[in-house]
Amino acid sequence: MVPLAGLVDTAFLGHLDDISHLGGVALATVIFNVVYWSFGFLRMGTTGTTAQARGRGDAEEIWLILLRNGAIALSFGVAILLLQVPIRDLSFALLSAEPEVRAAGMAFYNARIWDAPAVLMNLVLMGWFLGREKGRRVIVLSLVGNGSNVVFNTIFISGLGWASTGAGLGTALSQYVTLAVGLSLLAREGGFQKLWAVVPQGWNLQAIKGLFLLNRDILVRTFALVLSFALFTNFSSALGRETLAANTLLLQVVTLSAYFIDGIAFATESFAGRYYGSGDRTHLRRLLTLGGFTSIALGLSFALAFVLFPAPLFGLLTGHQEVIAIVKIYVGWLIPILGLGAIAYMLDGYFLGLTAGPVLRNATVLAAGVGFLPLALLAQSLGSAHLLWLALVGLMAARALTLLWAVPKSLA
User: Which keywords are on file for this protein (predicted)?
Assistant: First the structure.
């Protein structure tokens, strides 16, 4: 359900007469990916630590994790709101785009930025529910949040004709709907009383220091990954609006499949944390085998579906035939990207469950700096979209190999 909102945005904007709106939202999404997913540690760090506390049977620590990470999320969310103008001006100054595309991107940004506190709080809530193996609650949050986004976008984009502004406003409102539902689920189990009960223990300098050390490593990991995708989109923009639109559609497929694979990765994360917390290495090995084969099969299935049937599937996202023609040229790159990416996504979940922050940090920084950046810069210099996609393959391959290298030591 998570990528459905982005797909709906793309489908609505991709069928407008002016393709600048699709490119503009893709450009603005780069900014939100960098800003919001740099705080992905709020979800990832919450899941692993909660799962391990559950494995130890430490009920009080489970609520303390929610309290501390929730406070951090709210603080950062408010800070983003206060700094929204300098973030916008600096970001768009660094991004390459034609004037119409830039204007559409700024309209989306100005409408969506107000959801910052809700986005970060939702990351914590989802991570906490996943750490407690409450997957059904995460499904409810996804259904409600993304379902409401579909409704809002239908009203604002199709009904009122607000284009980029409507897409941003619809996404922002859906995040607050998600937060409201998440807090209501928390209240149903007496969560606010339990949180209040652990407030006196909330300020523990040693625990907060450990939390920030883990979050620092995950922050570096996430920032390196998000920056790579941001550079990919920015370099795509320099190749022209049609190529930017085509690459945006292909990245939507990567995102869609990644979230399906992340379902396996999240489950791997929860179980890995519990097994690691209880010292059960046998089940950790079985978990890796099952998660690995399932992820690869899922990733390749998605890739093959879009490679074999590009016209009807991408036709759902845009009516511009010139864009679909460009998509057909590059769609084959989905096979190595999703095949190798599946391994990387699953192992990400595994090491997040083990709260092995340095492993994740080092693997992703190496992948971004060695596997992706040199090829991406060469692609920009030569103006080659094929080289740009090869750079993304390099990113996925390097992540998969470096994480696989660290697996034996984790099982020792």
Answer: Membrane, Transmembrane, Transmembrane helix
